Amino acid sequence: MHKTIHTDVAIIGAGTAGLYALREVRRANKPFVLIDKGPLGTTCARVGCMPSKLTLHAGAIQRLQQNPANQSGTVDADKLNNTWAQLQAQRDFFANKASNMAISAAQDQLLTGTARFLDPTTLEVSNNGQTTLVHAKKVIIANGSRPAVPGWLDPVLKYTVSTDELFELKELPSSIGILGLGAIGMEMGLALARLGIKVVGADLSPAIAGIADPQINEQAIARFGQEMELWLGQPTAVSLADKGVLLQSGNRQARVDLLLAALGRRPNLDSLNLQEAGFPLNEKGIPTFNPHTMQITGLPVFLAGDCTGSKTLMHEASAEGSIAGFNAVQDSPVCFRRMVSLGIAFTDPDIFSAGASKAELDKHNIITGLAEGGSNGRARILSEADSLLHIYADAENGTLLGAAGMAPHAEHLAHLLAWAIQRGETAVSLLQMPFYHPVLEEMVQSALQDIVRQLPHKPAWPFGLAPVNHH
Ligand SMILES: Cc1cc2nc3c(=O)[nH]c(=O)nc-3n(C[C@H](O)[C@H](O)[C@H](O)COP(=O)(O)OP(=O)(O)OC[C@H]3O[C@@H](n4cnc5c(N)ncnc54)[C@H](O)[C@@H]3O)c2cc1C
Ligand SMILES: NC(=O)c1ccc[n+]([C@@H]2O[C@H](COP(=O)([O-])OP(=O)(O)OC[C@H]3O[C@@H](n4cnc5c(N)ncnc54)[C@H](O)[C@@H]3O)[C@@H](O)[C@H]2O)c1
C-alpha cells in the first residue's frame, strides 16, 4: 500500500543545491518535503571539494617535510595510510555537519528514498520496497551528478575507482593512473604525487584543467609535468596487467596499481523518468529551463545544481538552489542576475579563470594584458617566476571581460578579478585602486597597464591617477 503526501514544495536532493533551496522554502514557511536516497552529507563535503582540498593540503605538508637526502622515491606506507586516515576523519567532520544540517532543517519532512516522476507534480519515492506518492504544487530537482565511468573501462573495472570511491579507500596504492586531467584529475594527481605516490595522468585533450588559454596551458604543463607524468592529446588504452592496469598511449606505457576515472560528471536526471512524465528535454536529456529563474519551461518545476549539466561548481549550486527555492514559493518567478564565471583549480600554483574565457571571446575585439612572474618581485622571491596572468579587455574601451592565469594562491587574484569584471571595471578604473609592494597583486597592476598601453584612447594622466574633479 502507498503512503501519500500532499505538500507545497518537494525538493529532490539534499545536496548543496537542495539545502539552499530548502532554506528559501523554510523562510517562506511553506510546507515541504526533502527527498534524498542517501547517503546524506553532500557531494561537496563527502567526495568533492572538501576531501580533495584536504588531500592537497596533506600533499603540500608532505612536500615541505620531504627530506632531500631521501630521493629514492620510496613511500613510507604506514605513514601514508596514517595521513590518509586522519584526512578521512577530517572529511567525516564536514560530511557529518552537512548531513546533520539536512536532518535538522527538514526534521520529519525528510523522506528517504529514490524519487522518480509520474507526472510533473507527482513523485514516486521508493525505499526498500516501500513506496510513497508525493503530490506537490511545485517541485525542485536538485539531484546532482555522478562520475562518468564509460564502458571501455569494463575490463579494468576491478582496479578502477572514481572520486565516489577514492576517498573511501582504506589504503592508498603505490602508483595510480589518472584518466582525464580536468580539475579533478589535476588536483588529485598532484595531491597524490606530493604524498609520494607515482602518478601517470592522461587526457585526450592537449589542455590540462580545462585551460582555454594556450600560453597558460603551456606554462602549466611545464610546471606540473615535473611532478606527475602528463600524457596529453592522444587516446590512452587500458588493459589488465599483473595486479593492476597497463596504460598505453602512442609509444608510452606504464603499469599502475589503480586507475582513477576523472572523465567528467553526468547529470543524474536520467534516473527521474522525465521523458515519460512529460518534460520537454533537449538533445542531452536536460529539460529546457530559464537560468535566471531556474524554472523548467512551462512547468511548476525548477532545476538547481550539478543536474543542470553546466557550471558544476559549489557556488553555482548554492546560487541556483536559492533561486529555485525562492521562486518555488512565489506566484510568479523573479529573474535573478547570475554571477560572472569563476573557476579555480587548487593545483598550487593555482590555475584560474574569471569572467569570459579566451575561447569565448572574439580575438579581434579584445586586448590581452600580460603579466609574468619573472617581472614580479614577490613571485621571484617565492620561486614562482613561471607565474602568468592574462587579462582580456574590450579593445575599444578597456572594459574587463575575463582573466586567466597560474600563480601561487591565485584563488585571491581570481576573486579580485571576478569581482572587478562583475562590477564593470575598466583597466583604467581598476588601476586607480591601491596596490601594495611587493605583492602578487602587482601582476594585476602590470597586466592592466599593459591593456591601457594598447588602448586606442589613453588617459592623459599617469597610470592609476585621476584628477579630483574627474568622473
Ligand atoms: C572531486 C570533486 C572536487 C570538487 N571540488 C570543487 C571545488 O573545489 N569547488 C567547487 O566549487 N566545486 C567543486 N566540486 C563540485 C561540487 O562538489 C558540486 O558542484 C556540488 O557538490 C553539486 O551540488 P549538488 O547539490 O548539485 O549535488 P549533490 O551534492 O550531489 O546532491 C545531490 C543529492 O541528490 C540525491 N539524489 C540523487 N538522485 C536522487 C533521486 N533520484 N532521488 C532522491 N535523491 C537523489 C543524492 O543522494 C545527493 O544527496 C567538486 C566535485 C568533485 C567531485
Ligand atoms: N577546484 C574546483 O573547483 C573543482 C575541482 C574538482 C572538480 N570540480 C568540478 O567537477 C567537475 C568534474 O571534474 P572532472 O575533472 O571530472 O571533469 P572535466 O570535464 O573538467 O574533465 C574531464 C577530462 O576528461 C578528459 N577526457 C574525456 N574523455 C577522455 C578519454 N577517453 N581519455 C582521456 N581523457 C578524457 C577531458 O578532455 C577532460 O579534460 C568539473 O567540471 C568541476 O566543475 C571543480
Q: Can you tell me about this structure?
A:
- The chain has 12 helices and 22 strands.
- It is globular and about 75 Å long.
- Helix 7 links the parallel strand 10 (198-203) and strand 11.
- The longest helix has 30 residues, at 77-106.
- Helix 3 packs parallel to helix 6.
- The protein has helices spanning 16-27, 43-47, 49-65, 77-106, 163-166, 183-194, 214-224, 314-328, 377-381, 410-422, 427-431, 441-454, and strands at residues 3-12, 32-36, 110-112, 114-119, 122-127, 130-141, 145-147, 160-161, 175-179, 198-203, 229-232, 237-241, 244-249, 252-256, 258-261, 265-267, 301-303, 342-345, 350-355, 366-372, 388-394, 400-407.
- 30% of the residues lie in helices and 25% in strands.
- By secondary structure, the chain is of the alpha/beta class.
- Strands 1, 2, 3, 4, 5, 6 and 17 form a 7-stranded mixed β-sheet that branches. The chain has a 5-stranded parallel β-sheet with strand order 8-15-9-10-11. Strands 18-19-22-21-20 form a 5-stranded antiparallel β-sheet, sandwiched between helices.
- The site of nicotinamide-adenine-dinucleotide has 25 residues, from helix 6, strand 10 and strand 18.
